[in-house]
Amino acid sequence: MRAEILSVGTELLLGDIVNTNAQYIARRLADNGVFVYYQTVVGDNPKRLSDALDIAFKRADIVIATGGLGPTKDDITKEIGAKFFNRKLVLHEESLKKIEKHFKNMNRKMTDNNRKQAYLPEGCVIFPNANGTAPGCAIEGNNKIFIMLPGPPKEMAPMFEDEVMPYLSKYQDGVLVSKVLRVLGVGESNMEDSIKDLMDSQTNPTIAPYAKDGEAILRITAKARDKNEALGLIAPVEKQIRERLKDNIYGTGDAPIWDVVAKMLIDRKLTIAVAESCTGGMLASRLINYPGISDVFMEGAVTYSNDAKMRRLGVSAKTLKKYGAVSAETAREMAEG
Length: 337
What we know:
alpha/beta; Alpha-Beta Plaits; 3 domains; 6-stranded mixed sheet; 4-stranded antiparallel sheet; globular
């Protein structure tokens, strides 16, 4: 199946907010064998949104739109979608009751324009919103599917996982399973060079390397009849990669390095204290978010000035003068102090 992501909102065009929804949806669709060929951003303009939808359906089987489901006049995604499929917007009583309940629980008065969010295209599949007021929906017709989701990521992502993925599963032939290996201490180009022969000969599974926030990622993806069969295809490829990258692979899945470190400390009953300078407490902040870290995390100190480094950590003035505050030598003395 070919898919296109249609991000609706003038604030996206102006660069006021980052389009994290498109990144999230594209990644999750790829994980499940749906290929995104295009991503389009369009403002809150009826004509341009209608044109964008028309173009999208000329090159995709599924169009997933985010944004434009709110209560205001410029929230027009449902209206344009319904018109495209020649459907009317009708009041969905269950959605209206949920919206009313939401405002009651928030101890806020519900304005009349919020009723707009309960009007949905006739005959659509409805996706309840457990984290906000705007329900999502899908319209099917002429072998095309138009999925509409709310714009706020905290509403979109849970709805996509809980409602859209199960909905799309009925259109898939087999399953696509991915395993992510997280790599430190080797750049993306060097990592790719070390497994080049595996990538050149790949068919199923496929291997996709990419860089992300100071680390390298390897995604191994297999297509099969079921999850167990796919994992069986992934296993020998993963084994070969681990034999080459060895300890540079620090973890799998979505767990970042600080979570992996925190778990290792807890499992091995090792205590830790941190001294920071330019990071301003970031390392301590990330470590203490891990459940159970209080058993092993002793303390943290932010020693931004040279005076603090000397007074609290015993860094020598000579080291600071010779190598500077941002140096391996200073960092070593900070750790020793």
